[in-house]
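In this supplementary section we document a worked example of the pipeline. Step one takes a protein sequence of length 281 as its only input; no multiple sequence alignment statistics are reported here. Step two produces a three-dimensional model, which step three serialises into structure tokens for compact storage. The input and output of this example are shown verbatim.
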Amino acid sequence: MVWDLRSARALGVAVALSMGTASFGATVVDFEDVGASLPSDGKFYYEGADGAGGFTSRGVHFRNQFSESPFGDFWDGWAYSQVNDTTTQGLVNQYAAIPGSGVGSSATYGVAYPGSGTTGGLSLVDLPSPKTVAGAWFTNTTWAALAMRNGEGGFAPVDPFGGDEPDWLLLTILGFDALGDPTGSVEFYLADYRFEDNSQDYIVEDWEWVDLTGLGEVSRLDFVMTGSDVSVFDFGEGPVEFLDIPSYFALDDLVIVPEPGSGALVAAGLGLLAARRRRAG
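The serialised model returned by step three reads:
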């Protein structure tokens, strides 16, 4: 890395924020506490195969569900992972984030599979008490990124993103209060090829900061994925859209603060750092 003024300023912001989040009483959910147990049973990820129904990192609960069948094992919801494979495309590599590590080259990060349908409700995150979420870092998984870049065959084929096709993959983060009422939503495009200028099209392959203070004070988060490549099935209860793109994403360093005002300050500082990182890169 070439150190210049921008790099030095970015480092200064990072140091200031590390001090600031502590003074604000912020909790940074980095998954390193649960990651310390890996590998487990020879696996560098945990997806709920023990039937626990989820896991807790830094006091925040991430739900999942796991089932066995004659056709194989199935899971949805949340996993945590230390898989660093950025080149293998397919189901065998469903627990890898495309950057190859967590934020700041950390070992452990979260992986979510909300399910291929658009109904949500499978990737819930429960806070121990109502708080403001300043934001978190998000990116694609390796499988999703490579499927969009290269295309994929199989039961639900995916054409490569590119050209003038207005393809997109959207993650919507939903907030809920202690009574279960919605507090708001935030949208983040994991891929967007809808621009008139094709040079602006992108697939997210680095960690990107997303400000979540607009959700207000929340007790629960949910995550829904939608996209341009879908198939429609009817199982007797009406048509349901399913994503053809592998509906996974990765998350790291979820920042939770006790006061709304401090959440805005932390989010603004982290957003500035993220912008400077992109410019410096």
